[in-house]
Amino acid sequence: MKQFACLLLVACSTPLALAGAIVSATIASPLQSADALVQKGRALLEQKKPAEALAAFEEADKLAGGGLATRQWVLRARLDLGQVDSVLSDVEKLESQGQKGAAIDYLYGMCFAARAQKSIAEGGNGGIIAMAFADSASYLKSALKAEPKLYPDGWRTLAESAWNAQDLPAAREAADTACALAPEDDAARTMLGKVCFSQYSAAKDDEARKAEAAAHLEAAREAFEGALRLCVARKEPEWRASEAGVRVELARVHAWKGDKAAAAKQYGAAFGLAPQAIDIAEARGVLDSAQFVAALEAARDSYAAAWGVEGAGDAGVWWWLGYARYADKQHEGAEEAFAKALAKWPDFVNSHYYIAMSRYFRQDYDGAVEWFHKHHLANAADCAASLSANKEENIRILDYLIGLLVPKGKNLEASWLARIETTIEPANSLYWNNLGLFLRDAGEQKNRSKKPEDKAAAKQLWEEAYTAYAKALELAPKDPNYLNDIAVMLHYYLDRDLDKALGWYRQAAVEAEKELARTDLTSELKQIRAIAKRDANNNLKRLEELLELRRKKAEEKKGGKKDGDQQGEGAGDGASRHGDQAAR
What we know:
Layout lengths: L1 H45 L3 H15 L3 H13 L3 H13 L5 H20 L4 H21 L5 H13 L3 H14 L4 H18 L6 H24 L6 H17 L3 H14 L7 H6 L2 H19 L7 H13 L3 H14 L6 H11 L3 H14 L1 H9 L2 H15 L5 H14 L4 H19 L4 H24 L4 H15 L3 H19 L6 H36 L26
Helix pairs in contact: 1-2, 1-3, 2-3, 3-4, 3-5, 4-5, 5-6, 5-7, 6-7, 7-8, 7-9, 8-9, 9-10, 9-11, 10-11, 11-12, 12-14, 14-15, 15-16, 16-17, 17-18, 18-19, 18-21, 19-21, 20-21, 21-22, 22-23, 23-24, 24-25, 24-26, 25-26
């Protein structure tokens, strides 16, 4: 019996021991699991996956019962999600509840740095930003003194805050420490490069510190290249913005070292990786025109490798490539690039202008006219703004093209360019008068056709011509040539308001006489005014004769007579009799 009891005791002791071990493991596992989840979350933060990191931290915090050891990481992840103000508020609550020490200082330091970065992004006040960085540096120094190894990202942020506060020695020490604690942290190496580059800038103009400056510049290059290697090794799309930022920093170093070709390559690769985030105009200020083309061709290739060629994401890259080629007088290549930009993103409407100019400089004058017209149709205001950027030269180009069109009888095309000139200088009466002339003559060409639709088109063109002449007269109400021109439209083309036309002819003759009495007229203008006087008097006589003829015909009709002169209604068809003048 004793033996049985002993056996029973032995048999029972094993399950009891196992149960105790299980209970012990159950008690220990939440903390162990929480620690593992914290480590997982921190790794996810380093991988730029804050949302996933937050989920891990929140689970860890739940398992650990909400203690500061896990709560701090929940708040840290929320910072990377942009929740700066709410996190700062939560840290203040924790402090008011009696929490203190390295974790609170760390969180304050990270919050103030994030607030400064947010203010920079929003174009905030410089004084507030400087104060935030100073507060960040102060809190982080305290936290890292107590926990030098727990917060590697704290060292990196301290480096950034001290750098912005222009405390370069503290920034360099913090950046070196960050890189030593987290050798795989690309952001730490990027920050080190920035600090070294600032140290170079501070020393480069001091002859006694030339060697020191060169060492700092080389250290910056090594740091940026190290950061770039880390970014390139990570293939996920979320790393491309970081890679682009590093490449810009490296481009600046190459530029200062005098290697513009290397700088162009890095600027271009950066722009291709993140077209919306990189200001390629910086490269334009650093590189010559050929190097800028090389940079944009690198951007094109970089974008294609990273994102593919489908979609409109690279429209800006193509626009800038067109601009770079245009500036380098590669006009055929410029047109190709602008056409791609416009096809991908029609809002790049000024591409029309550059295509037109590219064709002009290749002596494809008809093509230039076509694209100026397309630009005006697509967006008249943008067309005017583009041409006005170099107005004097561009007006000469438009006038030159008009001069090519008119002798060829391309009056409608000439009217396109004249209309553009009225949008560039709407107060210039000459452009409105020219527009009226070209529309009128284009209408004449249409009117020669026997097709009803062409006859209707001619009438519409003449109405537009009348409106243009009216605008010219509004701007210069005593100009005898304009008075004659607008009267001609009513008399010979539109056959309406003939009493008004009579008045304008009479006024034109009077004003021309006044002009010819002046002693300060140039010989050219004197000739133009003499023509106005002659034409106004001749046209007045013809119109009076026409009105008299119509009066007689009306009386004959009223009196029952069926015969009579058949002139009158169609008397305006011989438009060449009015003596209207071309652009002057």
